[in-house]
């Protein structure tokens, strides 16, 4: 009997439970039931124990804990254990790599991106400050803060490890505890992964719980600050959308559901082009990996009319080499479906498609492998010109349909008839074909792969969701968004517009706000370690007069002889400058000479500037001075230094702003 991890302990139901069968042998792997689980206690535990513990941590600290999770699951003994159990789900070794290593890689990616792109804080400013008054004493700032709720994550059967990890990572980094509810059929693999995480004590108690079995009345326990992320069928998604907690209780629901994804072969491609082989390989890969049980798999193969027969012939030839059988056998390319019930569903979908399509490869009722296993041959169909079922029926298995089109505009219309998809691909080497199809199909897709000979070698393929890109899609695909890098983290958080004085916004955000107090001391801030430096610490420099000799010398040494710096007559006619002006980069260089403290010290390196703007031209005879203020301090969790962002304001002798930018430095912690 699988156990749930609920309210701080493992719980085993006394009910008989439902049997979970090995997809290959039909033997019972485990039984599952959630009868007796205290769902209310799980929600309370998440909110009262897990949530506060996570929210005490900064984004970087949370990200480091996610890295610890990824490192734990990467241990050879644990990964081998997961792979061994994964065979029971019907997954081949390659399928398991997509699920297990793909999930681990997603967690690593989230940990890295969060530490690079979010502050080492509990509040994330969103964009620049907005000045709300003429004098600058009333300003606004959008910020992201953690919600005091729980993330309920309901996952599908086809990716029991990746599905759990890709939802857990962004939710945890955002500050939310998770209750993971895997699909029952393959829940034993999810339970194993969660058990190893809990045993290792990597995460704060209450931040990760597991519900094995039916969700029951779990949604009844959720309130306005809580969220549900669901991956599964449109039918179940409809039930969730109608739930009282979602309709009237303020619970946020994200859905990733049925998706009739397509791949479009460009009108420019012939059988002799490398794009033709790329197209065929892509279709076959999506039919065979995970036995086609992927929400991103290609279901509709959209090709120019004259290419229908060559495409069918090429796909069929490749499918001939795709051995169906026991996933433990290294020669097997296509394992069984997850269950006999799933095989019946796929057969039913194929029959529905056959009302307006002909099978041109495979037999869905042919005997394959062990008769106790949920095996099915890959099946390729050729859709009739007037077929509607091919755009409405999703066979969740190794099945695809070839559809002909007459023009690029026709291909776009066919792609859109899927009513919204997670991913589409366009295989072409013609930029105009790519532009027309992508612009027309983009509103109907969450992601589009444009594949040709140039990117094929490094492309991750049609069906691979990537942690740095959005995974989701409009319409039929559910309308939700997951992943997307930091977007996936911020999606779980509350964005609030804060209005107040610059000093108040600085205190709230932990980032110096223009107009805030500057602390000018005798000690140059470059002499301060990260432990000593404070937000608002400032150096105000003396002035430096810019001479014509400076401008000429800079032009000669850099080769930047733009007329506004070198030709008095032409410069005088310039409506902006009205005469010779200093190079903007000369101003930046001289500004550095004014504010830099040259001796060895805590400042280790300058690694760039952000948001550089030149505001007022500087002419020979003008003088400049600088105010450099510590704007944001970000200690790195894994190094003995951190990043300091400095606000740099360069002004002329009249107090006018000449240039503004952020200087980025690495500063020792001690």
Automatic annotation (TrEMBL):
Keywords of this entry: Oxidoreductase
Signal peptide (from-to): none
Domain Aldehyde dehydrogenase: 19-439
MaoC-like domain: residues covered: 534-638
Alphabetized InterPro entries for the sequence: Ald_DH/histidinol_DH, Ald_DH_C, Ald_DH_N, Aldehyde_DH_dom, HotDog_dom_sf, MaoC-like_dom, PaaN-DH
Entry keyword Protein biosynthesis: no
Family: Belongs to the enoyl-CoA hydratase/isomerase family. Belongs to the aldehyde dehydrogenase family.
Stated name of the protein: Phenylacetic acid degradation bifunctional protein PaaZ
Gene transcribed to yield this protein: paaZ
